[in-house]
Amino acid sequence: MKWVEAKMKELSVLDNANYKIMFMLDSLAMITIDHPKYGVIETKPLGVIWGKYPENYSKENSIIIDDLRRNFIMNPGNGLKIRPFREAHLNRGTDTELKGLTKYLKEIADLKDFDELNHDRWEKYKREEKQTDS
């Protein structure tokens, strides 16, 4: 968990009131699976969170944001792949991935069900495509 906390501090996520981080999981929460395409890999099962907090989290309201697609192989519809953040000391001023991601998450925040979203196209998402509760 130390690496996750260090990365979040480096990105100024933990001490920023604009982010509402409920919890963080590290590699200890991952499980090992034998995938037909990728072989034996570790992955992040959202079912762990859904099982522990069913009153708050489900497939309808959860997204894994990760730079490795295999980390959400068990829940591909809930996975959103972003570009990796590398060499922070060089790229901090030019990296805009989180800004774009913030825009997308604000656009979808009031949706009741994320199942219909295609997170592969998150950068092209437009408000007029947004579902409503009519």
Task: Describe, in plain words, how this protein is organized in 3D.
Residues 130-134 have low confidence and may be disordered. The chain has a single domain, classed as HAD superfamily/HAD-like (Rossmann fold). It has 4 helices and 4 strands. It has 134 residues and is of the alpha+beta class. Strands 1-2 form a two-stranded antiparallel ribbon. The chain has a two-stranded parallel sheet with strand order 3-4.
Summary, kept brief:
InterPro entries: FCP1_dom, HAD-like_sf, HAD_sf, UBLCP1. By secondary structure, this protein is α+β, with helices and mostly antiparallel strands. The protein contains four helices and four strands; from the N terminus they run H-E-E-H-E-E-H-H.
Strand order of the largest sheet: 1-2
Write down the secondary-structure element order.
HEEHEEHH
- The structure class reads alpha+beta
**Approximate strand percentage:** 5-15%
Question: How many E strands?
Answer: 4
Helix content: 10-25%
What count of structural domains? 1
> At the third CATH level, what is the topology name?
Rossmann fold
Low-confidence stretches: 130-134
* CATH homologous superfamily grouping: HAD superfamily/HAD-like
Total of DSSP H or I helical runs spanning 4+ residues: 4
Shape: globular
Report the end-to-end length measured between terminal Cα atoms: 42 Å
CATH architecture: 3-Layer(aba) Sandwich
